[in-house]
Design a protein that fits this description.
The protein contains twelve helices and twelve strands. By secondary structure, the protein is α/β, with parallel strands linked by helices. The protein has two domains: 149 residues, Rossmann fold; 141 residues, Response regulator (Rossmann fold), CATH 3.40.50.2300. The strands form two sheets. A six-stranded parallel beta sheet has the order 2-1-3-4-5-11, with helices on both faces. A six-stranded mixed beta sheet has the order 7-6-8-9-10-12, sandwiched between helices. Strand 3, helix 3 and strand 4 form a beta-alpha-beta unit. It starts with a strand and ends with a helix.
Length: 298
């Protein structure tokens, strides 16, 4: 019987819809309890926990060896990659797998998975922001991007946001560094003092774990928000545009089956891009932010 080591990058509760989708899809290929079992470990968005869990999964002296590691989020994937070059690793989501160093442009090594096209979608998200907020904010639209600066793909995404925002004629301010949950409130307060009224939320597990807090702080400070994932948008975000995560986790289960049940090597399974997306805005939040034109169209 194979053992799947599943590193949950945020909390088990937040990822339950996705782990459920993964497990259900894997059960369509194999019998749980007979062909495979899954060991779930949650890191709660903490880099230290990524390393601890990855190290345990990769430990060759483990009582129950791990046959395949499944995870998501660039930081978590990098931690697993650092600990093993032998155990297959499938990532259900990663922002920019090539530029963040997860995989080469041509398949090699022990990793494969699905890209959520985080950096590729920056232009789309900024256009949604501009088009939806311009009627109310006009030239007063003042943007900043926040995210976990400890993660390479977030650093890349923030740079792209800054470049594209300026190309679109949007006023942009660079955010102070944000690397821990304790940085979130001071960073947002500093941006408010600079006159920022709109936040582009760059996503990683640290941000996801603290998304409700970020949305509340943004709303309390009259900041519009653009999120990449539905789970971060929640009930108090203004809008989001991004991939359908359950679909990505189902696809990751297909990859896991190819490796376990069909003896494929990760290097023989090309990394794929997310292909189903969704957009949503919250009328109630728009009204609370005084975005009358946006609220009227929703």
């Amino acid at each position: 019987m194979w053992t799947v080591g599943f590193l949950i990058a945020t909390s088990a509760d937040l990822w339950k819809p996705y782990t459920d989708a993964f497990e259900a899809q894997l059960r369509s290929h194999l019998k749980i309890g007979e062909d495979f079992k899954i060991e779930y470990r949650a890191a709660d968005g903490l880099q230290k926990r990524y390393r601890e869990i990855a190290k345990d999964f990769a430990n060759p002296k483990r009582t129950k060896p791990i046959d395949i590691i499944v995870t998501g989020g660039t930081g978590a994937v990098l931690a697993c990659k650092k600990e093993t070059s032998k155990i297959p690793i499938v990532f259900a989501t990663a922002g920019d797998p090539v530029n963040s160093g997860l995989v080469a442009s041509k398949p090699t090594g022990n990793l494969t998975g699905i890209s959520n096209q985080q950096t590729n979608l920056v232009i789309k998200r900024l256009n949604y922001l501009r088009d939806n907020l311009a009627p109310d904010l006009g030239k007063k639209l003042h943007l900043s991007a926040i995210g976990n600066d400890s993660v390479p793909n977030v650093q890349l995404e923030k740079k792209i946001v800054a470049d594209v925002a300026r190309d679109l004629g949007l006023k942009f301010s660079t955010s102070p560094p944000l690397k821990t949950p304790d940085d979130i409130e001071p960073v947002i307060k500093k941006l408010v003092r600079r006159g920022v009224n709109t936040l582009f939320i760059c996503t990683d597990p640290l941000i996801t774990t603290n998304a409700e807090r970020i949305n509340k702080l943004a709303l309390d400070n009259k900041l519009s928000t653009m999120h990449a994932f539905r789970m971060n948008y929640g009930k108090q975000g203004l809008m989001f545009y991004g991939p359908r995560f359950p679909d990505m986790f189902k696809r990751a289960a297909d990859f896991a089956y190819d490796i376990l049940g069909r003896a494929k090597r990760p290097a023989d399974i090309p990394v794929e891009e997310a292909c189903t997306f969704e957009f949503e805005s919250n009328k109630k939040i728009a009204a609370m932010l005084g975005l009358k034109s946006l609220a009227a169209t929703l």
